[in-house]
Amino acid sequence: MALITTNGLSKKYEQNYALKDINLSIEPGQVLGYIGPNGAGKSTTIKIICGIIDEFEGEVNVLGMDVRKNALDIKQQIGYIPEQAALYDVLTPLEYLRFTGKLYSLTDEVISRKSMELLRLFQLQDKANDRMNSFSKGMKQKVLLISGLLHNPQIIFFDEPLSGLDANAVILVKEILLQLKRSGKTIFYSSHIMDVVEKISDRIIIINAGSIVADGTIEELKIKAQRGSLENIFTSLTGDDATNISTAAEFINVLNN
Amino acid sequence: MDKFFLKILLWFVSKTNGNEVNFSQLRIITETKLLMDQRRIPVSWKKRQQSNNSNSMIVTYIIYGIMSLFVGIQILVLQNLVFSMIIYHSYLLFLMAMTLITDFSAVLLDTADNHILVPKPVNSRTLFLSRAIHITIYLLKYFLIISFFPIIFTFVHFGLLVGLGVIITSALTVVFAIFSTYILYGLILRFGDEQKIKDVVGYFQIFMTVIFFAGFQIVPRLMDFNENFSFTVHTYTYFIPAAWMSFFLEGIQNLRFDTVHLIMTACCFLIPLITLWFMMKFLAPSFSRKLNALGTVSAHHKNEKEVKTHQRMGISERLLDAVCRGNEEQAGFLQVWKITARDKAFKIGFYPSIAYLFVLLFVTFINNKTSFQVQMAELPLTDKYLFLIYMPVFVASGALTLIPYYENYAAGWIYQALPLAKPGNLINGGLKALLCKFFLPFFLLMFSIGFYVWGWKIIDDFIFGFCNDILIFYIMILAQDSYLPFSQKPAIKQQGGKFAKAFIQMIIIAALVGLHYLALKVSWLTAILIPAPLILVYFLQKKLKELAWYKIKI
User: Fold this and answer.
1) Cross-strand partners of A22
2) Helical spans, DSSP H, in B223-283
3) Is the confidence at residue B303, as pLDDT, over 50?
4) Distances from the Cα of B11 to the Cαs of B23, B31, B122, in angstroms?
5) I want to staple B75 with a disulfide (CB 3.0 to 4.6 A). Which of A17, A166, B153, B503 is the partner?
């Protein structure tokens, strides 16, 4: 049985459709790569499935529950890691993790043990009691990542999780994603970084201007688009190779004149 | 104190809200919010220096406590109950509304909750109550500090009945303050986005700063403390919340309930209670809904404004060629002109000083010794136009001290990456922008006033004064440490060990103004002296333009 299903999911902002008739079905343990250009509707899809945006058209079910009626129960069992490092940065990492951990009904003992261990793995143990307003974007992103996974959710939504991370942290997060996949977690992964999407995803969906333009495994997409890499497939479906080439040429031209 | 209030409120919530609320979540959310409040740097009346000092809230409480003491003392000093209570309730209403709008806006309008709390399994009732408890504790603390002395002194001076009455009227005044805040925010949210709200709050901070400063300076001048205070009720009095409260208190003190007192008493109770009901029923839920929507709307889906295909030539571009020589100067000019128009921190720091100019004018030219008409008639016989000449310097010099500082100061890396041979040119361009934008308009305005009052005889003084003013700016900029515009962290604004420099600078400025004052004694002297400051300006400008990189503090 599918863990996540959407049926005719649409979302309108004023007169414009941000999402149009999105139909998804994600099986347990599946890693879905959800890619698309800026403003395509990736974050909106994730926010609706996670119960953050509650005004939309169509049906959305997560873990067999209707997201409109059971948003709280769904939120309890999922993890959501947003793109921007939105956290209360006047708190220390330990204070923040205690705060979010308690909202997931974890005990103080579990929160404290897991927090210290996870901070250590991200080499933040020395900063555990420093206020985060002095942290770099990458450091905040690490804390955000921990806070989204602390309650060991069944389904995890990543919205550009590698944004702002340093090279070592990117490698570590990639490895964490692979390990999460191996441990049977269902992952909804939205990103611009194609090689990671290609590496970890069982299935890839490309969304453009609010609509799904491709859906399948990387092999299926390659056959369909007759292109070698995910980046090429992506460009062919969401942009135009020829336009990019001519824009680049024009750019150089303007520089030279 | 937070924990005490939290305990009481949670107990109250537990008795009134059954299964709908998750108490463990409610506690951790409110505890965390209160902890963050303690670490938040208050905005108060003006933007303060950023510091890591977690005691900044305590400093604010102490300041409010001192003000509370002063307002309390007036209750003991003034003999008229209505008058003293109008002052107290106005002060309470003003301060609570100001605190809510300026300081607490950072909390009320924080859309981080949309990203942090909304994705968590927290139900809407718990979220709503956490917000309500947080605001209540915040208000309770400020209410206690602001009202402590006035309430105690009311008990001492007017007795138990009025003392108990003033507790009730104070609470009703707070309700009114919250209502005003909701109305303001509601209006802004109706017409603007998150950025607009922040901008409006910024302007409101400026407005409040000015009102505060102006109030302290102007109100005492408008009062005659020698006469007995007797309060005449006009039609507009019925529209003043502080008057409703005061007349109610007078009514219970003298057990007098004539038509005026009955109307005021009815207003005192009914209007705040109606506004409270209106707030709970309509304003608060609608405000919450609008606030929640702020963070979720994607930037890409907002109505896209049409891109301007051609830029209208602004004043800065028109002035550029006239006042600046060379690209570096022009770059500095445009940079300072544009950023000072857009940087909120600069606006909050500087704009109040524009209003102070008018307050200073009022304070200088108006006193309560003789009537306004007599003072105006005698003005042309005085030399007070000297104030008009030098007052604009104080306005623009405020901007000069703010220019090096910028929130995103790291953007200053660009100076070092650019092939900038003489950074002094850039500073000079920036100074010229300040002079054109923040000095010249006010100088011309002062000249118009001066010309209207004194006529042609002051022309030479204004020309000499203008040159002197420019000279003062060059002295100031060269006497200070040299910084490139918008390249310094605001936190390091406080600089120790600069006293001697500032003192010498003050002496030079005082000498220049003093010289002008002495020159007034000989009718032809000012006109003869005009070239002197001009020559000095020429040399000082040259010195500034030649400023070497090693002299610039990065």
Assistant:
1) A9
2) 241-254, 259-278
3) no
4) 10, 15, 20
5) B153
In single-letter form, the type of residue at position B380 comes to P
CA B245 to each of CA A40, A114, B146, B261, B316: distance values in angstroms, whole numbers, following the listed order: 57, 56, 17, 10, 52
Which residue in B12, B245, B54 sits closest to B140, CA to CA?
B12
Q: Least CB-CB distance to A75: which of B35, B119, B297?
A: B119
pLDDT (0 to 100) of residue B47? 45
Token pair of B455 as six digits = 């006529």
CB contact under 8 A, A103 and B296: no
DSSP element (H, E) containing B31: helix B23-39
The beta-carbon neighbor of A88 closest among B116, B118, B296 is: B116
Place of tokens 């902002």: A13
Q: How far is CA A245 from the centre of its chain?
A: 30
* Residue B381 CA neighbour count, 13 Å, CB half: 5
Residues B150, B72 contacting (CB under 8 angstroms)? yes
Please state, in angstroms and rounded to a whole number, the distance separating the CA atoms of residues B458 and B233: 46
Distance of CA A2 to the CA centre of its chain: 19
> B40 contacts in A (CB within 8 Å)?
90
Is B491 an interface residue toward A (CB < 8 Å)?
no
Instruction: Give the whole-angstrom CA distance, residue A96 versus residue B521.
Output: 70
- The pLDDT value given to residue B482: 86
B138's tokens: 């915040």
Q: Is B296's Cβ below 8 Å from some Cβ in A?
A: yes
Residues A113, A104, B119, A166: what is their CA dihedral angle, to the nearest 10 degrees? 10
Question: CA A159, CA A40: separation in Å to the nearest integer?
Answer: 13
Which residues of chain A approach chain B closer than 8 Å at the C-beta?
Answer: 13-14, 16, 18, 38-39, 43-44, 47, 50-53, 72-73, 75-76, 80, 82, 84, 86-88, 90-91, 95, 98-100, 102-105, 131
User: Are the beta carbons of A14 and B28 separated by less than 8 Å?
Assistant: no
Beta-strand relationship, A78-81 and A155-159: parallel
**B39/A contact by beta carbon, under 8 A:** yes
Instruction: Compute the Cα dihedral for B73, B74, B78, B84 and give only its sign.
Output: negative
B205 and chain A in contact, CB less than 8 A: no
User: Which residue has tokens 């441990």?
Assistant: A183
B345 burial (CB, 10 Å; 0-12 / 13-18 / 19+) is: middle
Token pair for residue B438? 């923040």
d(CA B143, CA B92): 8
Q: Is B303 on the interface with A (CB under 8 A)?
A: yes
Tens-place pLDDT, residues B360-393: 777 777 766 666 677 778 888 888 888 899 988 8
For B110, the closest chain A residue by CA position comes to: A88
d(CA B141, CA B371): 44
pLDDT for residue A170:
81
Mean pLDDT of the B450-467 span: 91
pTM strictly above 0.80: no
pLDDT-derived band at B55, boundaries 50, 70, 90: low
- Is residue A46 within 8 A of residue B298, CB to CB? The reply is no
Distance from C-alpha of B120 to C-alpha of A27, rounded to nearest angstrom: 23
User: What is the distance of C-alpha B90 from the center of its chain?
Assistant: 18
pLDDT score of B302: 46
Are A72 and B298 in contact (CB < 8 Å)? no
Residues of B in contact with A82 (CB under 8 A): 115, 119
Q: What is the per-residue pLDDT for B249?
A: 92
Give the 3-state secondary structure of residue A88.
Answer: coil
Using CA coordinates, name the residue in chain A closest to B111.
Answer: A86
Q: Please give the Cα distance from B402 to A153 (Å, whole number).
A: 50
Integer-rounded Cα radius of gyration of chain B = 28
Residue B135: in which H helix or E strand, if any? helix B124-158
